[in-house]
């Protein structure tokens, strides 16, 4: 089925945006992150049905993270190690997060009011200069959820902290996570009433 058939003759209007701002050259939409409830079901779908390959898995005490992607050259096998080495320079990757216990509908660690308890979690953008990127976010009054160098709290991700029977970041992940920033963009986009996170 072609795009025209899907759109039922509602032809899309070609974009007329000018060149991207010079300060954003080198920004790359690296991955989308989805929260999952059952890794076995999700991995079967994304790997066996859609053909994505597992790049790496991070198994924590409270959660497991799976990164998947297609080989760079269609039809050519790439090992997990090759995919891993290229991951920061790629587009179209998929991050799946399974918070252990979340498969239970009544799991008590979720805060009830959080807008992304399941499903879409964030988009990940790689940038050539984190400090310049964050300065740009601040210049444009983008709400910073977690800045470079800070550690996230469970509440940032809709989870109760360890003191409330929930989960906390494991110490071994502290340094890599300090290099990541999260911003809230939904108030700018005006699309969703909740929060949409972008990670850098």
Describe the protein in words.
The protein is an alpha+beta fold. The protein has a single domain, classed as 2,3-Dihydroxybiphenyl 1,2-Dioxygenase, domain 1 (Roll), CATH 3.10.180. 21% of the residues lie in helices and 24% in strands. The protein has helices at 3-7, 39-49, 80-86, 130-139, 174-178, 186-189, and strands spanning 28-35, 53-59, 63-69, 93-99, 119-126, 143-146, 182-184, 197-199. It has an eight-stranded mixed sheet with strand order 2-3-4-1-5-8-7-6. Strand 2 and strand 3 (63-69) form a beta hairpin. The longest helix has 11 residues, at 39-49. The protein is globular, with a radius of gyration of 18 Å. The chain starts with a helix and ends with a strand. Mean pLDDT is 76; it is low at 188-196.
Q: Count the E strands.
A: 8
Estimate the helix proportion, in percent. 10-25%
Number of domain modules: 1
Mean pLDDT comes to 76
| CATH-assigned homologous superfamily | 2,3-Dihydroxybiphenyl 1,2-Dioxygenase, domain 1
Proportion of β residues? Answer: 15-25%
Structural class of the helices, strands and pairings? alpha+beta
The low-confidence parts are: 188-196
CATH architectural designation: Roll
Strand order in space, largest sheet: 2-3-4-1-5-8-7-6
Rg: 18 Å
**Morphology call:** globular
Characterize the main sheet. 8 strands, mixed
Could you give the distance between the termini? 36 Å
In CATH, the topology is named 2,3-Dihydroxybiphenyl 1,2-Dioxygenase, domain 1
Specify the CATH class.
Alpha Beta
Write down the secondary-structure element order: HEHEEHEEHEHEHE
Helical run tally: 6
């Amino acid at each position: 089925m072609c795009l025209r058939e899907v759109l039922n003759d509602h032809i899309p209007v070609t974009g007329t945006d000018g060149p991207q701002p010079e300060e954003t050259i080198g920004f790359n939409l690296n991955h989308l992150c989805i929260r999952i409830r059952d890794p076995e079901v999700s991995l079967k779908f994304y790997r066996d049905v859609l053909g994505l390959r597992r790049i790496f898995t991070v198994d924590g005490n409270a959660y497991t993270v799976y990164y998947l992607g297609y080989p760079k050259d269609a039809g050519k096998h790439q090992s997990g190690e090759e995919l891993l080495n290229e991951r920061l320079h790629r587009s179209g990757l998929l991050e799946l997060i399974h918070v252990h216990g979340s498969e239970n509908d009544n799991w008590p660690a979720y805060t009830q009011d959080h807008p992304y308890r399941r499903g879409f979690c964030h988009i990940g953008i790689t940038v050539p200069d984190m400090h310049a990127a964050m300065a740009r976010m601040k210049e444009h009054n983008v709400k910073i959820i977690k800045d470079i160098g800070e550690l996230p709290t469970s509440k940032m991700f809709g989870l109760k902290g360890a003191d409330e029977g929930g989960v906390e970041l494991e110490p071994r992940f502290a340094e890599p996570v300090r290099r990541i920033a999260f911003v809230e963009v939904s108030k700018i986009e005006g699309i969703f009433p909740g929060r949409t996170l972008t990670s850098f």
